Every structure is written in structure tokens, then in C-alpha cells.
Amino acid sequence: MNYSSLSIEQKLDLIFGLYKNHGHEDYIGEPVSQIEHMCQSAQLAEKEGFDSEVILAAFFHDIGHLLNHLENTESMGGFGVKRHEQIGADFLRNLGFPDKIPQLVENHVQAKRYLTFRFPEYLEKLSEASKKTLEFQGGPMDYDEALAFENDPLFDISLLMRNWDEEAKDENIPLPDLEKYISLAREVLYSSSIN
Predict the structure, then answer these.
(1) What is the mean pLDDT of each run of 10 residues along the chain (195 residues)?
(2) Are 144 and 87 contacting, i.e. CB atoms less than 8 angstroms apart?
(3) What's the whole-model pTM score?
């Protein structure tokens, strides 16, 4: 579906409606909900002093798992949406977000594949759900894939995104006001639309 013709406010209603209506769903075998995971990821990016685009990428990195409420998606055997990183990135591009955001959304899975190739012990640090989804995501990279990924201009931030993804699973952390992320998204979409 083409969302590019929507107004900025309609786009924000669409995106954040997903979080408000479905964000409290189980986060594929983890001890937190989707919305808790997304907020914690964004808070970690913010704590490290990153800009609005990186904070939003951290917030949106798993949005593909929520898109089964808007379009037909394929499941990873009960562990969320298959190719959620690509589906989420395409959705964000379609909405008009600058490419850094969807690229980082795509890269968070590539970073997991990279780290499990480059550091085999990293695999043991993954949760059981994350190990299971890795099977659907192509497993560890091969040498050529890893070399190409190391040359990605967003490589370093992508590895940080992966760390935030792994860390953002703490139970009983109070949710921030979503209005904060809505405002950030509004600013970025507006800025993107006039450039």
C-alpha cells in the first residue's frame, strides 16, 4: 500500500496507532512487550547522545513485527514477522522518513548476523527467541557479506543498534510519554518533506 500521499499527521496517526493499539502485545518470547522494547531501545540511543534520526530508528527498529496488523506477512514460526527488518524499512521509506532511519532498521538484523559470524561467542549471549529468529534471518554472515557490511557507512551505529536491541528487555521499566517520539517523528518528517 502507498502511504506517501497521507498528510504528516495522518502518517503519525498510522504509525503510533500501531504502537497504541498493538504495542502491548507479547514481544516474541521475551519478558517485555513490543512497546516496552521499542521505548527502551530509543532511551538507550538518547542516553548515548544520538540525534533524532538514530533515536527514531531505535524506536522503530522492530516496527515490522506490528505491520501484520496492516498487511499480510509471513511468520517466523511464531517468533514474529519474517523479514520484519525489510518490511519495516520499506514502510518507513514509503512514509517519507529520511533513508538513515529505514537503513538502520534494516541493519539491526544484519548486525546480528555479522556479530554471530565475527564473534561466535556472541551467539551464546542471544536470548532463545533471538537464536530462533536468526535461523529465519539467514544465520551468521559469510566472509563476503561481513566484509561488505563493514564498509556500510552506518556500520558502527548499526552495531550499537544491535546492542540496544539486546539490552532493551528489562522488565518493569516505566514507559515514557509516547508524545515525545511523536514530536520527534513529526519534526523529522516535516524536515524531510521540505528538503
Answers:
(1) 85 92 67 81 94 96 81 60 80 95 94 93 83 84 96 97 84 83 95 78
(2) no
(3) 0.90
